[in-house]
Amino acid sequence: MVVIAEIFLTAFFTVLLEKLASGDLFNLALPKGICSQLQTWTSKLQLIEAVLSDAEEKQITAKSVNMWLQQLQDLAYDLDDLLDELATEALRRKLMMAQPTQASNPSMFRILIPACCSTNLTPRAVQFDLNISSEIDSITERLQDLLKQKSDLNLMSDHLGGTRSRRTGDERPSSTSLVNEYSGFYGREKDKQAILAQMCLGSESSSNCRFSVIPIVGMGGIGKTTLAQQIYNEVKNSFDLKAWICVSNEFDEFAITERIYKQISSESCEFKDLENVQVKLREIISKKKFLLILDDVWNEKYGKWDVLSRPFQAGAPGSIVIVTTRNVSVASIMRSVPDYHLDELENEEICSILAHHARGWQNFDARPGFKETGEAIAKKCKGLPLAAKSLGGLLRTKENPSEWKDILNSKIWDLPAENNDILPVLRLSYHHLPSHLKRLFAYCSLFPKDYEFDKHELVLLWMAEGFLRPSETHREMEDVGFQCFDELLSRSFFQRSKTGAESRFVMHDLVNDLARHVAGRVCFRLDDKAESNVQHKKDSFLKARHSSFIRHQYDGSQRFEAFSRVRKLRTFLPLPVFETHSWRFYLTNQVVYDLLPQRHFLRVLSLSGYNILQLPNAIGNLKHLRYLNLSDTRMKQLPETVTELYNLQTLLLWDCRMLTKLPSNIGNLINLRHLGIAGTEQLQEMPVGLCKMASLHTLSKIVLGRGLKVNELRGLSNLRGALSIIGLHSVMDAQDAREANLTCKHGLEELEMVWSSEFDDSRNEMIEKEVIELLKPSTNLRRLEIKHYGGVEFPSWLGDPSFSQLAHISLSDCRHCTSLPSLGHLMSLKKLHISGIEGVKTVGNELCGLGWPHVGDAFPSLETLEFADMVSFRIIRIA
């Protein structure tokens, strides 16, 4: 039995309907017939949207519904591409109308003039209308056909009272408190003792809280229920009353209360309303110590838990509720003690589970014919007990070691569905995701197993693909993305990397397989063995929209030959995204100059780490592009056509060590949100016009001079993270520094101010003092570096107690300064580096801050104090 890949389009349709509602589309010079056709799509899409929930539920058991959803998915992507093309054309017209002096080419300008204003459209404009008209007719025909199929499939509309079908493939088997006396309990003894200790603390706690709630949190199949069973059976005799409730999908307060009542009282429940059954339950448990297990809870609504838990307040102090869940959010509304997170088991324990369920053995030590293969199969389980149990059940019928090797060499998801409990258990987690998170998770199928990805990088990719929409609270898309990421993390789809890096994460191998399964044909990993013979899977591969691959030392055109047939590819993503090795990776020119410019629908294009010297001018034809990563390449400059990528949101040029200039019209990229240019030491100048990019969140540095003034920062109110301002010696008018308005850039956390290292006659100490005074940053700053400053004293704001978050200060080569600022008032300052300040000869109380009653009160958080290259430094005087 082949498991059908699920398709969820609810979130996608929301985006499409929002785009169709945008008035910008209808401002384009299009024939009235086309505009009318666009307007009719909204009503047709709404008719389909109304039955999506029913279709998404039925697709697992109804192949015809799944095939209908596949066609609908293809249509949704094509429609999204067309709407994006129209919106881009409208944006370009708006920009051209705002800059008429740049429209030196009359034919280029006239194509963007509304038809009502021109009776002499250019051949290009006419061809554009014809092409769009043809595409619209095709989509309309396909949409009409899908509407007819919808009727034939008898799909129910939500607002007509349709009810969702229940998926047989996603139901979790009900659990009970009974344990298999002969199955063994492997690797969880430490976890059991830790929870028993928490239960003891709960029993000893104040009677103000009559019961304690202990959540056991972990991914599906990790052993939460088994652990709870062991605990329940070990301590149940210590409680007056006890009950085990498998909650699973639906959190019905009445049904759960009724089941608790039946177990505790051993009586049938005659009450038909929540009020009476809760009153009766409260009477039974009053002043009695109870133990309640709520297994597999999914409810995230505090109100429902509040109602269910009201009778529990009548119990005796020391009563315990143990909750098992995959979701930290569920635990957060119920817990009275910190969550207990279950980690994967060690391979030794997994081997024992596998050996027991396969052959009834304790391990493979005495079975040399099976030992090597059995241990290798155990590694495939990646610490997941359910996987070991499921594989063990399959291996019970395999008595020959060679048959075990066949299982070892197969993919876990290829196991017969009737013998595989892993897929339904993990898929249940996916089934419970909100629709918009399903799409985000499926996209992660682009990452190979064991791939360590960066949280911030993934959010930028999600944003580029159009998966993130501004929230009703007008939060930034990046913040929406981080919230979505954290929610997937809380639901155990992601795990923190064991390398210790704060922003690095991985997916469990079986979760990675789940992502591949739910993504289906839309996401394609070029290196995956299952897709290696892509020529024989032409129909499936041609529908791919997103692709990734592991970067090789030499990537020739032959490797990407299959891509020449995938006309609507949206993602070209070499992995790893960063962490390359200084141009040891080569990508053939045929790919850069011929293949990629023809992929007109690309949203994400990364060439990071390749030995690329330049890009073709045709890069400007990729009008849908949102994300362009050229980090760690050998390019000296970008083609000017990059500034025609009006939709571009992210342009990454990290560590482009040979880059000398940016395109002169880069200010045209009004939708750019992230310009990463750290590590570009050869970039000695930047073009004017940065102030037009009001959406910028990331601007690694700004290089002043040659026309670019510091006041270009005035309109960049959304800047976040780190900013380096280089060339401050070129500021001749202090008013420019005032206009930069750094004080209001509350998102900046790190700031570097750099003047010239040449202290010659061109430097003006008075102007530099005034400039740095007016460049006062926001008090949200966490890190500050000042280099080569030429004034005689530091600004008055440096050391002000309002900079309560400032943790790191570096003052270097400010050779004319004769005294140090008063920094002792900075409550969070941990690291202070001072070097090359030749004018300072002594350090005294001024560093700590005048007015302190005791020197010991200064620098309450300081961990590191470093002085270096202080040539006149002779005396340290602290009174």
Task: Write up this protein.
The chain has five domains: 10-160, no CATH class; 189-341, P-loop containing nucleotide triphosphate hydrolases (Rossmann fold, 3-Layer(aba) Sandwich), CATH 3.40.50; 347-420, Orthogonal Bundle (Helicase, Ruva Protein, domain 3), CATH 1.10.8; 424-519, Orthogonal Bundle (Arc Repressor Mutant, subunit A), CATH 1.10.10.10; 700-879, Leucine-rich repeat, LRR (right-handed beta-alpha superhelix). Helices cover 35% and strands 13% of the residues. The protein is built from 25 helices and 27 strands. It starts with 9 loop residues before the first helix and ends with a strand. Mean pLDDT is 84; it is low at 101-122, 160-169 and 529-538. Residues 38-89 form a coiled coil. Residues 208-354 form the NB-ARC domain. Residues 13-102 form the Disease resistance N-terminal domain. Belongs to the disease resistance NB-LRR family.
Set out the fold topology.
Elements: H1 10-20, H2 32-58, H3 63-98, H4 106-110, H5 123-152, H6 189-204, E1 211-217, H7 224-235, E2 241-248, H8 253-265, H9 274-285, E3 290-297, H10 302-309, E4 319-325, H11 328-332, E5 340-341, H12 347-359, H13 368-380, H14 385-395, H15 401-408, H16 422-431, H17 435-443, E6 453-454, H18 455-464, H19 477-490, E7 495-496, E8 504-506, H20 509-519, E9 523-525, H21 538-541, E10 546-550, E11 554-555, E12 571-575, E13 586-587, H22 589-595, E14 604-606, E15 627-629, E16 650-652, E17 674-676, E18 698-699, E19 701-703, E20 721-726, H23 734-740, E21 748-754, H24 765-774, E22 783-787, E23 808-812, E24 831-835, E25 842-843, H25 845-848, E26 864-868, E27 875-876
Parallel strand pairs: 1-4, 1-5, 2-3, 3-4, 9-10, 10-12, 11-13, 12-14, 14-15, 15-16, 16-17, 17-18, 19-20, 20-21, 21-22, 22-23, 23-24, 24-26, 25-27
Antiparallel strand pairs: 6-8, 7-8
Helix pairs in contact: 1-2, 1-3, 2-5, 3-5, 6-7, 8-9, 8-10, 12-13, 12-14, 13-15, 17-20, 18-19, 23-24
Pfam families: LRR_R13L1-DRL21 (PF25019), NB-ARC (PF00931), Rx_N (PF18052), WHD_DRP (PF23559)
InterPro entries: Apaf_helical, LRR_dom_sf, LRR_R13L1-DRL21, NB-ARC, P-loop_NTPase, Rx_N, WH-like_DNA-bd_sf, WHD_DRP
Family: Belongs to the disease resistance NB-LRR family.
